[in-house]
Amino acid sequence: MITVYGIPNCNTVKKAITWLKEGGFDFDFHDFKKKGVTAEKLNEWCDIFGWENILNKKGTTWKKLSPEEQLVAKDQVGAIQILLKHTSAIKRPVVEKDGKAILLSFNEDQYQALLK
Is 83 helix (H, G, I), strand (E, B) or coil? Predict the structure, then answer.
């Protein structure tokens, strides 16, 4: 079972979904905006990928945060506080297979290696 976590209007999420559909993969899509995400799930992903990789500092959501809010994200605990409040700051998509996160963002070679 594959679950793709993200937001539907994100170009990187769109690329991942297109790749999965074209490859004939069956998957569920979890929209952060509509369904949210738990601190437990964010901690799992941070443990696998590192909180610095889960927190998308290149995106517009991060850039729009006040300097005070950005300072909160100095460690995993602070980053999760920010990500729970601003789910669009989560690097996406996160792809889980059988309940375990295996992919972050979209890289066709990685998807090929881990899903085929």
Answer: helix
Give percent of the chain above pLDDT 70.
100
Query: Count of alpha carbons within 13 Å of 55, Cβ hemisphere only?
Result: 26
> What pLDDT band is residue 89 in, cutting at 50, 70 and 90?
very high
CATH of 2-115, one of 3.40.50.960, 3.40.30.10, 3.40.50.2000, 3.30.70.20: 3.40.30.10
Please give the structure tokens belonging to residue 80: 């999760």
Q: Is it the case that residue 116 has pLDDT exceeding 90?
A: no
Would residue 46 show up in a list of annotated catalytic residues for this protein? no
Q: Which residue out of 7, 8, 9, 10 is catalytically annotated?
A: 10
Helix, strand, coil percentages in the chain from 3-state DSSP, rounded to 5: 55, 20, 30
